[in-house]
Structure formats: C-alpha cells, structure tokens
Design brief:
The complex is a heterodimer. Chain A has a domain of about 70 residues. Chain A is about 55% helix and about 0% strand. Chain A starts with a helix and ends in a 28-residue tail after the last helix. Chain B is of the alpha/beta class. Chain B folds into 3 domains: about 180 residues, FAD/NAD(P)-binding domain (3-Layer(bba) Sandwich); about 110 residues, FAD/NAD(P)-binding domain (3-Layer(bba) Sandwich); about 120 residues, FAD/NAD(P)-binding domain. Helix content of chain B is about 30%, strand content about 25%. In chain B, the strands form 7 sheets. Chain B has a 5-stranded parallel β-sheet with strand order 3-2-1-7-19. In chain B, strands 9-16-10-11-12 form a 5-stranded parallel β-sheet. In chain B, strands 22-23-26-25-24 form a 5-stranded antiparallel β-sheet. In chain B, helix 1 runs parallel beside helix 8. Chain B is globular, with a radius of gyration of 24 Å. The chains are: A mainly alpha, B alpha/beta. Chains A and B meet through helix 1 and helix 3 of A and helix 6, strand 20 and helix 9 of B.
Chain lengths: ~100, ~450
C-alpha cells in the first residue's frame, strides 16, 4: 500500500471512529434506558473538539463533494443505481481486461 | 488451447467463482487453490452447531471436494499459494509454478486480534475454520466458563450458543450498548434482554486489558476495566480484516478500508485479475463510500459475478444496501443500510418513521410483535435505511426493504403498499405500512406546526 493510500485509510478510520463516538453519545441521550458510558478509545482533543464540530456544521452535500474530491468514494462504479420504476438496461460495454 | 483460470480461495466467493466460471465456459480450465481441506461448508452455521441447535457439524457440509472434481474443476486442497508472478502469469504453491491466463483472488479475511498482553495464550478461540471448530466443540464438553470479546454479530451469536450449551458466559464490549457499531439502542435493548434470559452476563462499556495465563500457558482469566473474569476459554469476535497479503505482493490497489479495490465488474487494478468476497471493498449505495467485510451472501454473489465475467460474460455488481439480520438469543434483529447512529455519524439528514405490528393475524397462535423503524430522506421521503426487531418475518422484511430502498421507494410508497393478509402468515395491516403511515402523519403534523396560524 502506498503511503498516500495508507494516509487516506488512516484518515478515514480515525474520522469514522470519532464521528461514530460523538453520534453514539447523542443517540444514547435519546435512548437512555440501556446505554452506558463508552469505553472506546478517544482519539484526542483535536478530533473531538475541532474535527467533529466542523464536520457536523457542513451540509451533507458539501461533505459528499469533499469525499468525492478526495477520492474517498468508490471509483469505477456508476454513481446512481437504477431508479424506482426505471427499466433494466444492458450494462455498458466491457473495458479491456 | 483453452484458457486457464486460477481461483485462490475456497470459501463462499471462491467456490462460487470457480463453479460459475466452469458453467459459463465449459472449455475453460478452472483450478482452485485452498489452504483448507474442506470446501462448500457453512461457517455461518458454526455457532448454532456449538449450541446444538444444529445436531451435527457434518450437517454444515453442503458438498464434497470430489463432487467439484466430478464437475471438472481441478481442486488443490491444503495448498497455500505463496507467490504470484503477474508478468509470467504463474502462481507458486508447494514450490511448484502453475500458469494461468486469468486469476480470481478470493482470499477472504482474518480476524482482528486484540493488541493487549496475553493475546498469544492458548485458549483464545477464533471462529473460522470448521475443522478447528469441530475440535473446539469437543473441548467445550469439559469447559464451564467462557468470555466472549467483541460486540459484532458473531459475538452475539456465540454468546447465545455457548449459553445454550450450558456454559457460564460473560460478554464484554467497549461500546455503550450492544452491537453499537451496527444497531441503535432501541433495537439493541430487546436483543440484550434475550441474551440475558439465556443467562449471558452482558457487560457493555467494558474495556479489554489483557489475558491472564496459567503456568501451562493457557488463558485462565480475562482482565477488563471491570475486573478479572475467570474463564476456560476466551472467544474473540472483533472485526473482519481483509486478507490482502497476496494482493499487496502483486501491487493491487488497496482502498480506504484496506481491502482490494474492484470496479463494478469485480476487476482489480491488474488486467486479467478479478477479486471477490471479504478481500474486496464495494461501495455503499447511499454514500458511495467503500465498505468491506460484508456477509456470506455478498461474498457468494460477488464470486458468482467474478467467475461469470472471467469466463467471458459482462455482468455488473450494484453498490450494496446490505440487508442484514441474525438471532440474538431467541430474538431476531435486522435492517438494511444505516440506522440513526450511523446517519448521525455521517451527517446524513433523515427523518424517522416507527411502527409496531404483528407477524400474523392478531388472534392466530404464534403471532409476534414486529417493530419497524424506517429512515427516510427529508423532503423526498425516500427510504435510506431501516432497523427491525421481533420474531418471525424479520429477514424477509429486511430483504424487501433493501430491495425497494435500492430502487428509490418512498415512505408514501410503503404506506400504501399491497400486502398479503392470511391469518397464519400475515396480518391485515403490515408492520412496514404502519411505520410508514406513522411517519407520514408525523411529517404532516410537523409541516402544520411550521405554518404560522
């Protein structure tokens, strides 16, 4: 794995982890009956106090575009699957293999 | 001369790929390499064989190696491929070089190992290979206490199974509620209660600190943030990690999950090389973010597609919406795509529609409550996820919801859907309809509130 690819992998793993932890805290407040404080590892103050609030402030469209720009989304896949009621179409011609 | 295809891996993806390739192009020479002695068995059934819900481990074997040979496949069992040379188009196994024209990598996954002291002790068990599971099953007869580590689906299944087997089971996980990476707390709650009814001691928010061994080098206790838990065995059920050592060695592109990048034809970054199953990442249909470590049915479908395409067809695989479901004790939970927690984490806007119905006519014996939670996109009310729990019929509803969600169904569509009413198998008012109708009513009420009088 190239160092750039490894950095992207780490960025994704770390950001997902902190965003999930923050979301768990919020969701737990809505469903307090069977939740306990998490023992998941903290990633540090930058991620919790800077990254999470900034990420949350941005609208979803902006986040999605940023993920596309950073090539964090899948490459080589059609963006939109078939819509409801849209008829089946033959797949696009194969690339050279 | 006919083309030669080599498939590395004999799990769900590998067996599907090799079988379909041969069926698609009978002239193709297809060789399978697997490090294990068995093929075509169901690893997903292992917990239920331990719990004796499946009486014999032999029931998990669906076919034999001989049967594949009779179908014209070259089967190289207990044969580990140690090297691939893409320039010469050869693989090396047992110091022999074998040529190929096309290659499909189905090297699967390995379990994440805890990075704590004592992780190399004997008595730490990982659920994967059926032969090892059969040996472990015999050892279970003399065991009394088990600690299950990790909050993913397998840990829940193993906890239920070992409790049924009569062991004293402690389940530990760092998360704030059961299965917190997968489900929301309202769905986790009845699942946890069901496990507890079987006698499982569920300890959430508990950190694993290490394993304590005896003089014989065998685990005797699990050290946690809540104290030491004595045990005869510790079953580790953390995350599935893609087994990419061969893929890395030939320079295949790896993605942000660490798995092999494939396109919608399951082609890798190297010409003439496909990959499928737990070793690859595929995009989630909602976010297009790649994900890996999906279910056996995903591995099987990807393997079929890779095999067909390697044999000359032109099939495409859709981004996934991931219907899922399993038993937590005696209770069924399931869903598709995302729940509230993941939507919050990703920052995806959503509205929730909840409802409770019954699985059969209310008066029919065996009718069970079915809880449905739907997530929809605000405005369009397009379905983007769901989580369900209850008794019978959860799996079928999750399959259905994943399919219609993928095709763009809205809460409006579901609220007025047709459904089967037959007292022994379905109620007059389908639980999915109830949830969708409730969701529409809430949306209407919130719009009314938003309009000034």
């Amino acid at each position: 794995m190239s160092s750039f690819a490894e950095q992207k992998r780490r960025l994704r793993a770390r950001s997902e982890h902190v965003l999930r932890m923050a979301a768990m805290e919020d969701v737990a407040r809505r469903y307090p009956r069977r939740t306990v404080p998490s023992a998941l590892p903290d990633e540090g103050p930058f991620w919790r106090r800077v990254f999470v609030p900034l990420y949350r402030r941005a609208p979803w469209e902006l986040k999605r575009n940023a993920m596309r720009t950073l090539k964090l989304t899948a490459q080589g896949w059609p963006e939109q699957s078939r819509q409801f009621g849209e008829p089946w179409r033959p797949p696009s011609p194969p690339r050279d293999t | 001369m006919s083309e030669r295809l080599i498939v590395i891996g004999g799990g769900g993806a590998g067996t599907a790929a090799s079988t379909i390739a041969k069926r698609t192009n009978p002239d193709m020479q297809v060789a399978v390499y697997s490090e294990f002695p068995d093929i075509a068995y169901s690893p997903c059934g292992i917990p239920y064989a331990h719990g004796r819900e499946i009486p014999e481990f032999e029931n998990l074997f669906l076919s034999t190696v001989q049967r594949y040979v009779e179908d014209g496949l070259e089967m190289n069992m207990e044969t580990t491929v140690t090297d691939i040379d893409l320039d010469r188009r050869t693989v090396t196994a047992r110091n022999k070089h074998e040529g190929f024209d096309k290659l499909i990598l189905c090297t699967g996954f390995h379990w994440e190992q805890p990075a704590v002291p004592g992780a190399n002790l004997q008595g730490l068990h990982y659920v994967k290979d059926i032969r090892r599971a059969m040996e472990f099953d015999k050892e279970l007869d003399s065991m009394k206490r088990a600690v299950i580590i990790g909050g993913m689906w397998l840990g829940v299944e193993m906890s239920g199974a070992l409790a049924r087997r009569g062991l004293e089971v402690q389940f530990i996980d760092e998360g704030p509620w059961l299965l917190s990476e997968l489900v929301d707390p309202d769905v986790a709650e009845p699942a946890q209660e069901s496990l507890e009814k079987l006698g499982v001691n569920v300890r959430m928010g508990t950190k694993l600190l290490g394993f304590v061994g005896g003089s014989d080098g065998r685990v005797q206790a699990v050290s946690t943030s809540e104290g030491e838990l004595e045990c005869d065995v510790a079953v580790i059920c953390l995350h599935k990690l893609p087994n990419t050592s061969l893929a890395s060695s030939i320079g295949l592109e790896l993605g942000t999950t660490g798995a092999v990048v494939v396109d919608d034809h399951m082609r890798t970054s190297a010409p003439g090389v496909w990959a499928a199953g737990d070793v690859v990442e595929v995009p989630h249909g909602l976010s297009m973010l790649p994900i890996s470590g999906l279910t056996g049915s995903h591995a099987y479908a990807q393997g079929r597609l890779a095999g067909a395409n390697a044999a000359g067809e032109n099939r495409t695989y859709d981004p996934v919406w991931i219907p899922w479901g399993f038993m937590a004790g005696d209770y069924t939970i399931g869903g598709f795509s995302i729940g509230e927690t993941l939507a919050e984490a990703m920052g995806i806007p959503y509205v929730v529609a909840k409802g409770v119905g019954v699985s059969r006519a209310r008066y029919f014996p065996g009718a069970a409550r079915t809880h449905v939670k739907l997530l929809a996109e605000p405005g369009t009310l397009r379905l983007i996820g769901a989580q369900l729990h209850g008794g019978e019929g959860i799996k079928e509803r999750c399959d259905f919801l994943a399919f219609v969600g993928k095709r763009g169904a809205t809460l409006e569509d579901l609220a007025w859907m047709e459904n089967i009413y037959s007292p022994p198998i379905g109620a007059l008012y389908e639980p999915i309809q109830i949830a969708a109708q409730n969701g529409l009513a809430e949306q209407k009420a919130s719009r009314r509130e938003a309009v000034p009088a």
